[in-house]
Write the structure tokens for this entry.
Amino acid sequence: MSEPVLLDSNTHKNTRVLGDARTVVGPVSRNCSVITQEFQRLASHFPVLLTKNEDTGQFACVALFGFDPGENLFVEKDRWQVGYVPLNIRRHPFMIGAQTTPAGEEEHVMLIDMQSERISEQDGEALFNDRGFPTPFTENMTSVLKTLKDGFVETQDFIQALLEQEMIVPANFEIQFRNGERREINGLYTISQDALDALTPEQVVAMHRSGHLQAAYMMIASLGQMEQLIERKNQRLGA
Amino acid sequence: MTQPITSVVIVGGGTAGWITAGTIAAQHQSNTDAGLRVSLVESPDIKPIGVGEGTWPTMRTTLRKMGISETDFIRECDVGFKQGAKFAKWVTGADDDFYYHPLVLPQGFMHGNLAPYWQTNGHDKSFSAAVCYQEALCENGLAPKSIATPEYEAVANYAYHLNAGKFSEFLKKHCLEKLGVNYTCDNVTRVISKDNGDIAAVDTQASGEIKGDLFIDCTGFHGLLIDKHYQVPFIDKSDVLFVDSALAAQVPYSSEDDPIASHTISTGQAAGWIWDIGLQSRRGVGHVYSSRHTDEERAAEALTRYIAQSVGEARAKELSFRKIPIRPGHRQVFWQNNCVAVGLSAGFLEPLEASALVLVELSAEMISEQMPTCREAMDTIAKRFNQTFRYRWDRIIDFLKLHYILTQRTDNDFWIDNCDPDTIPDSLNELMALWRYQHPWDHDFTSRREVFPAASYQYVLYGMGFKTESDHIRLTPQERAFAQRQLQENDRITRMMVSKLPSNRALLNKVHDYGFQKL
């Protein structure tokens, strides 16, 4: 189990990070949490859906990479082979933590997973320069983490609005791959086109202003990527 | 000129009053101008008795139809999940003597009867464990669903344990804020009659007359309308069901992490039995007994001993018990003129199968669904209601009695007397005679009004060691193969569920932290 530690210019002055955003590390997952700000780019590559966190039952937006647990059809030879890699993947080996200041306030801090396969002391991107300032690499990562932190809050607002208007519906897929194998995919949800069509003009304006309307349509449009995903699976199956 | 029914008056709050008010108001849109007017008058001086802290799975539908969020209900009414009942010490009285009446039907029940095959082949497991996965969930302290399961939906069929006092308050708030129920807090002083014997209005101390077209008596044991006013006779059933007294206690958990049982535990005693139900913040434990076979002092001793097993003698002795008299039986009719009795005013039976609240729900449902449009239609519906509920009370009495007549206990006359054929209703004797030769099945229970399915009878009969004579059992190869498949499937599902479901307490904590989704 990896235990991320607080990123610190002194402790990590010699730490380097190998590879780039397309390097795959750790266990591969069939989906990852995404934020509304990246829906537009995601929708050209992945189906974007809703699913429930098994631990909390709360909805999250996810990009789908495969059909079986641990299956990622966009990864080959330990590299992401796709035009856009979600921010929540690109952030590795960094993550956001929260700590309480001496004044009792909660503040967000940057953590690093020192057990990650991308950590090195010899090669890769340095995190701090000789004077102890963050390198452009680290600054870029800080900005990715900040985008994610704010994005997850906004995405939760989006989900909450969908729930309140009862616009979420189950998206169950019955897939037959070319080798004849059948698969039922449950536990995924999307936005009801009927619910969108039934919005009043006032609701449409409100949703447009909050940015939720665009996100909703992106999500529906991304379902077209399901066929591409099935095609990738068919190729893997050699069918 | 016909007299339309536009206004329903419910006398008495408590769980019966508010379930009835909520059910009718929700269906008949009382929160709109065009809807039926539903009013409830409740005495400020009379505290509800709060029976029935256990429900049936029907409560999920009842609450959903009222537009209640399951998350709010669980958070506010101290609710725990209930997956059936465990009957301990009912057969031999030994420490390892128990059987389950789970809420999930036997595997493949819609397609075939597993009892004959189980009886002739499957004796390495109890009947309920062989045909149903729920006993394993209960024995492992597991919840019937996960936090990712939508509200009111089940992985394993479930009901609730709840705090009846909090439940009344919760329903009242919902009825007043969301469903448009009119509320008067006052004492009813007299009943004002019409020439035809109908109730025209009830008069109150300070709020004047409350007029209505249909009156519902939810005044509990007081029976203000059905008993005091109409004097409808009470049919006493103490010759069948001997329990006539209860001692109730509230038992705190010893720590915040104590497991919460997800089933009702009913433990046989010398002259009665002890109920034990797990709420979130405490357990409700009580001893129902027959005062003809023991006395209050000995019953209190037995209850203290039982509680001491889990919390220690010192803490058990500190608890105070509340005594509740029980008069088993029911009204001769429940709907008289334009008045229906719902809840304890209609009758009461020992809480062995949590029949109190389900009868309230069924009554409220039938009144609401068959609400007479005018007075002229009422007598026909009243007659139908009386037939239906008389049938239901009789079947419940039969089913409760069934739990007693298969005992092998002889340590007290309570158990011996219970097996006396003269105390067994003819209808039950007839079924027992049939089941000596063939296993209970759906055609034994053909009525739409049925409360307990054949599965419930199977669980109790075979749980208590009843033997259907197997000489004439002939299973076709197809039936045999079907049964084998179902038992294997049950094994597989049991293993999967036990590995996947969270503990009952863990799920309740998550409901507090996150709540269920609506889908």
Summary: The first strand of chain B starts at residue 7 and ends at 11. Chain B touches chain A through twelve residues (CB under 8 Å). The radius of gyration of chain B is 23 Å. Chain B has a mean pLDDT of 95.
